[in-house]
């Protein structure tokens, strides 16, 4: 270990296009200190970490190493200066061995040939330093997740990392595996490494961090020694905003008939024993952390994943084994991932719009006239703004893509629509349009499930919210209980000072 | 996309991607006509077209497979195997049914059924067993080639002499001087073009090849679409074989060698994207014609050895892909 490094951000701002995601962020990572960065999804944690590690440049503000301003050309440059980011998704070549991964891109050579003996020895030394038992010649695809995490850290250390940034390092680890990681974090800290990590698990933040920075909407809202906070205070600081007038008022009362009843729905690995009901005209929110099984549950419901359990539509048991069957039964799912699951980016708007119900436009041959008419109507109804009708969909803005995606699904005229992350990555104006549109659907008596990581969004939109945690329904909130605080507590598995509604 | 829209503003942009294959064909025809006076004679044109028909019929099916993001390397040996089977069945039933058209129809039926089954097997392994199309069809390619060699005991399977006389007209005769293979090829091509451009199946195939996840989330039965492209190709291989057997009346281990590569090459020259997502049948037809014209011109002229046929074809294929790449970067 060479001299310790401290990394600091001063007045960092960052914008993506017109949207500013970071506002004057100040963070200092001191050598030999563990710093936790917490905040809701979309609060700006990833952007902050990417700026620290050279993946993104700040729009304004100063990044400094040991008080000397630096500007990383890219992540390799940052690594060369001792700052390494470990991604949440492991960045390892699964088919290569542990040792090959550790030295990937900076292999030791003797002349033209690889110096296997030296690499083997150093890999062993690095793993020993991390107290990790894994065999350097084991294939990465064969080792446990915790070991993969260790390999990532060993890889970082082999590059002489003195500032280690970890994006949700425990998200993929079991509790016991996380314990192993924490022991190593303590060791590295003792060796003078500066560590920053993010986590949604507030108990572990409390346990292993020395300092906390809390982000909300790109602002640092609270910062200080971990000893100053308890878990409730952290949650409070993360949340705590009014729901503005972004959300329309409900004008048509929720129906009384039950449109959908789900009993004991399970999707292997992701969702266990999910039961809920949905009334006609109701907007049901589904909240929970990323990875809590929200998407997988709904994909199981519409037959995109195999699932078990009982589903009733208007009281009748149905078996939705494929999205085709679900669509026929009047249930459609709108994916959160519009770019790789929602739209054909290289095709035009017309092909995309009618893809979901092409048979309706086909009488032996596709009726292009009625396709064009449908597109004209969709452009009008959903206010889709495109430079021309035959523009490739990939060239539309995110908001217009999302509107087209909604138009496409609504063409199938479903009674129940499941919308996963209706407004991810789109501007506030379009958001408002989409909210109004969702309300209009509900007014027409359609039932809607909205999955969202944005707390305000579920609260502002939904009549009732299911909160999921680790593949189960942790609770249900509605009426006066529909607050961010309640949802966050349920999502994080904290005590809810009240009886659970489920 | 180059679809004929009724939109107010017609885009009169001359697209090299559309015109390229047509231009190349025109250039080849001009060169051929200058090199040899016989080139444009009815006899030579009929000859070139008839010979193109086998590959052409198969290539139309291949266009759908590739558009949907697949590949089929087995079609050449599948054709040889089906030819062998067709001959064996007809020879075997000869004592029962006697020489005549009923037996010919039984042979035809055999070819269609065998083609359907072979396509189904490829499709099943690729869609239901989730094995790479390249691997599956590489495997079945070896299997069919070996089976036909085995059926022929290493030699040649010959159709009964009497039967040969009866089925000869399927290749050599026709209507109004146009031979049957050309007519069938034309029908298959027109039908294929209509299905690709205006049919729900063509649109679905392009969607699956473009992004199968999007197709799945859009309630398209991805497996069925994929399966149907392989079954359709199998049926077309059967039809091509029906046209082919009457020509020589025999099948051997060298029947249909490299047909798969010629068919794939024709599809690519025609502007269909090898990685799927976009296909056009008319382009494939032009691709087939370009490939067979090259061979024909080299045969008719003295300047270049016909042994260089493969080299010239190879250059054309690579050029076609380079042109596609340039255009893709724009859109």
UniProtKB/TrEMBL annotation, chain A:
Pfam families: ABC_tran. Residues 7-242, 254-495 form the ABC transporter domain. One of its GO terms (cellular component) is plasma membrane. PROSITE patterns: ABC_TRANSPORTER_1, ABC_TRANSPORTER_2. SMART domains: AAA (SM00382). GO terms for molecular function: ATP binding; ATP hydrolysis activity. InterPro entries: AAA+_ATPase, ABC_carbohydrate_import_ATPase, ABC_transporter-like_ATP-bd, ABC_transporter-like_CS, P-loop_NTPase. It is a peripheral membrane protein. CDD domains: ABC_Carb_Monos_I, ABC_Carb_Monos_II. Keywords: ATP-binding, Cell membrane, Membrane, Nucleotide-binding, Repeat, Sugar transport, Translocase, Transport. SUPFAM superfamilies: P-loop containing nucleoside triphosphate hydrolases. It is found in: Cell membrane. This is Monosaccharide ABC transporter ATP-binding protein (CUT2 family).
Automatic annotation (TrEMBL), chain B:
The keyword NADP does not apply. Its main location: membrane. InterPro entries: ABC_transp_permease. GO terms for molecular function: transmembrane transporter activity. The chain crosses the membrane at residues 18-40, 52-71, 78-97, 103-126, 133-152, 172-195, 227-245, 281-298, 304-323. PANTHER family: ABC TRANSPORTER PERMEASE PROTEIN YPHD-RELATED-RELATED, RIBOSE IMPORT PERMEASE PROTEIN RBSC. This is Monosaccharide ABC transporter membrane protein (CUT2 family). It comes from Litoreibacter halocynthiae.
């Amino acid at each position: 270990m060479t001299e310790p490094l401290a990394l600091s951000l001063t007045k960092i701002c960052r914008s993506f296009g017109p949207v500013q995601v970071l506002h004057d962020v100040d963070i200092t990572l001191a050598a030999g200190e563990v710093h936790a960065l917490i905040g809701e999804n979309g609060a700006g944690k990833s952007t902050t970490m990417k700026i620290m590690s050279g993946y993104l440049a700040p729009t304004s503000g100063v990044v400094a190493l040991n008080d000397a301003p630096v500007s990383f050309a890219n992540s390799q440059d940052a690594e060369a200066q001792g700052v390494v980011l470990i991604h949440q998704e492991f960045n390892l070549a699964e088919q290569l061995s542990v040792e090959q991964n550790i030295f990937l891109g900076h292999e030791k050579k003797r002349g033209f040939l690889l110096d296997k003996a030296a690499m083997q020895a150093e890999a062993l030394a690095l793993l020993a330093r991390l107290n990790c038992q894994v065999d350097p010649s084991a294939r990465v695809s064969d080792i446990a997740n915790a070991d993969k995490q260790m390999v990532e850290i060993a890889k970082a250390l082999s590059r002489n990392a003195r500032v280690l940034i970890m994006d949700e390092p425990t998200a993929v680890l079991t509790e016991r595996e996380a314990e192993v990681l924490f022991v190593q974090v303590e060791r590295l800290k003792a060796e003078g490494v500066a560590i920053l990590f993010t986590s949604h698990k507030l108990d572990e933040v409390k346990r292993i961090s020395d300092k906390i920075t809390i982000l909300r909407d790109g602002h640092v809202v609270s910062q200080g020694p971990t000893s100053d906070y308890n878990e409730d205070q952290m949650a409070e600081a993360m949340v705590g905003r009014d729901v503005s007038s972004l959300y329309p008022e409900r004008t048509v009362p929720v129906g009384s008939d039950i449109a959908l009843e789900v009993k004991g729905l399970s999707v292997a690995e992701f969702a266990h024993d999910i039961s809920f009901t949905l009334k006609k005209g109701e907007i049901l929110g589904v909240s929970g952390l990323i990875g809590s099984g929200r998407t997988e549950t709904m994909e199981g419901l519409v037959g995109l994943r195999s699932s078990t359990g009982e589903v009733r539509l208007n009281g009748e048991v149905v078996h939705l084994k494929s999205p085709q069957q679900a669509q026929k039964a009047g249930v459609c799912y709108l994916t959160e991932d519009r770019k790789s699951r929602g739209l054909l980016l290289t095709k035009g708007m017309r092909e995309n719009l009618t893809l979901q119900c092409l048979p309706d436009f086909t009488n032996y041959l596709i009726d292009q006239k009625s396709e064009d008419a449908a597109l004209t109507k969709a452009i009008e109804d959903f206010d889709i703004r495109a430079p021309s009708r035959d523009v490739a969909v990939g060239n539309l803005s995110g908001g217009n893509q999302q509107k087209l995606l909604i138009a496409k699904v609504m063409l199938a005229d479903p009674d129940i629509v499941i919308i996963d992350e209706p407004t991810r990555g789109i501007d506030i104006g379009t958001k408002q349009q989409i909210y109004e549109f969702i309300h209009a659907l509900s007014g027409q008596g359609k039932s809607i499930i909205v999955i969202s990581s944005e707390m305000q969004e579920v609260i502002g939109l939904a009549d009732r919210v299911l909160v999921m945690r680790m593949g189960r329904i942790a609770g249900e909130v509605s009426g006066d209980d529909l607050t961010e605080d309640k949802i966050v507590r349920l999502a994080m598995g904290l005590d809810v000072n009240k009886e659970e509604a489920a | 996309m180059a679809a004929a829209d009724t939109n107010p503003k017609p885009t009169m942009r001359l697209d090299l991607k559309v015109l390229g294959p047509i231009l190349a064909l025109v250039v080849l025809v001009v060169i051929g006509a200058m090199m040899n006076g016989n080139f444009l004679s009815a006899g030579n044109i009929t000859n070139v077209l008839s010979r193109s028909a086998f590959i052409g019929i198969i290539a139309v099916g291949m266009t759908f497979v590739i558009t949907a993001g697949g590949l089929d390397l087995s079609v050449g040996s599948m054709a040889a195997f089906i030819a062998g089977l067709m001959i064996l069945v007809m020879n075997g039933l000869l004592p029962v049914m006697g020489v005549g058209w009923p037996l010919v129809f039984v042979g035809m039926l055999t070819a269609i059924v065998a083609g359907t089954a072979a396509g189904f097997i490829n499709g099943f392994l690729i869609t239901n067993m989730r094995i790479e199309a390249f691997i599956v069809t590489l495997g079945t390619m070896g299997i069919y080639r070996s089976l036909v060699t085995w059926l022929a005991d290493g030699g040649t399977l010959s159709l009964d002499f009497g039967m040969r006389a009866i089925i000869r007209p399927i290749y050599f005769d026709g209507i109004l001087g146009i031979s049957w293979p050309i007519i069938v090829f034309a029908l298959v091509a027109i039908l294929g073009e209509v299905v690709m451009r205006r049919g729900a199946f063509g649109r679905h195939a392009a969607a699956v090849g473009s992004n199968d996840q999007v197709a799945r989330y859009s309630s398209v039965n991805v497996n069925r679409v994929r399966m149907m492209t392989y079954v359709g190709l199998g049926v077309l291989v059967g039809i091509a074989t029906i046209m082919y057997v009457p020509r020589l009346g025999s099948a051997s281990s060298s029947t249909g060698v490299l047909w798969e590569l010629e068919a794939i090459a024709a599809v690519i020259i025609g502007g269909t994207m090898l990685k799927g997502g976009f296909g056009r049948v008319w382009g494939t037809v032009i691709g087939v014609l370009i490939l067979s014209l090259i061979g024909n011109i080299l045969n008719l002229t003295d300047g270049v050895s016909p042994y260089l046929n493969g080299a010239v074809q190879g250059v054309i294929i690579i050029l076609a892909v380079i042109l596609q790449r340039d255009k893709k970067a724009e859109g």
